[in-house]
TrEMBL record:
Residues the record lists as binding biotin: S89, T90, N91, Q112, R116, G117, R118, K183
Family: Belongs to the biotin--protein ligase family.
Function: Acts both as a biotin--[acetyl-CoA-carboxylase] ligase and a biotin-operon repressor. In the presence of ATP, BirA activates biotin to form the BirA-biotinyl-5'-adenylate (BirA-bio-5'-AMP or holoBirA) complex. HoloBirA can either transfer the biotinyl moiety to the biotin carboxyl carrier protein (BCCP) subunit of acetyl-CoA carboxylase, or bind to the biotin operator site and inhibit transcription of the operon.
UniProtKB keywords: ATP-binding, Biotin, DNA-binding, Ligase, Nucleotide-binding, Repressor, Transcription, Transcription regulation
Signal peptide: none
Protein's name in the database: Bifunctional ligase/repressor BirA
NCBIfam families on file: birA_ligase, PRK11886.1-2, PRK11886.1-5
Amino acid sequence: MSGQWQRKREILTHLNNGEFISGESLAEILGVSRAAIGKQIAGLAEYGIDVFSVKGKGYKLSNPVFLINESELLANITNRCFYFDEIASTNAFLLEHLDELQSGDTCIAEFQSAGRGRRGRRWVSPYGSHLYFSMFWHLPQGMTQAMGLSLVVACSLVSVLTQLGAKDVGVKWPNDIFFEHRKLAGVLIEMSGTADSGCNLVIGIGVNIAMPQQQGELIDQPWSDLQQMLVNPDKTILAKTLQQQLHKDLKLFEQKGLAAFSDRWHAADIYLGKPVRLLLGNDSIHGRYLGIDEQGGVILETASGQQHFVGGEISLRGV
């Protein structure tokens, strides 16, 4: 951890107790000048952290931050884990080091300056508010073996969140996690390789834990976070449990394919049996959603009969 971030984390620790604390008190505790404290707190806004400042009272966080306990994390993950206070993108970091990685290696950060979602969308990544997690995996049989992988990752996420006490969490094809019809987590899988001779995967996962109000206003769709369903969610436990569950599920996927996860998917599928709208570029198709096929594609019952859709830029929407 850099000296810059050590000081910021010390300040956040004192701001995170839910009470106001004066700049003078912070300066005395940390052994720095009052001006240095003001500069550090002003800098926190650049990382998406909302700090109240009230004359005569001092400073207070508008939302709590949830930071990884690095030593506990590294002691409980079997593979290598690269942990950063700030990074451009956890996916990008792993993609830059593919030749050095083994299946199960992870990258976790507290802040991403260039976080990405599907279709190149920005993933809002305020410091200490959410989990930004990426895992590397190698599939020996190539890209064709990866068919349906995003659904498997979604199933893993639901399993982990359920283990931690979250209720009524569901999946929306192909890999979004929802709570009360609002997005809680998303997945971005990036791959390189050939169709039949080995494929390298970077599986990026973002889980909303405690969304700051100002950051939430930047998001163009309804969102939810773990704080709405769990009291003081533990991000360290979430990260290590996710690494362990993903490792287990990806090994099962290698051996038995998507069929081993069909029951888990259908149990969590929020649109199963419901009328939906499928967006394919500029076109849309209406029908009743019947779940997924053996390739992980969408099955729709339409006016033209039962149809299957897989691959490409497809989005599923409720009606």
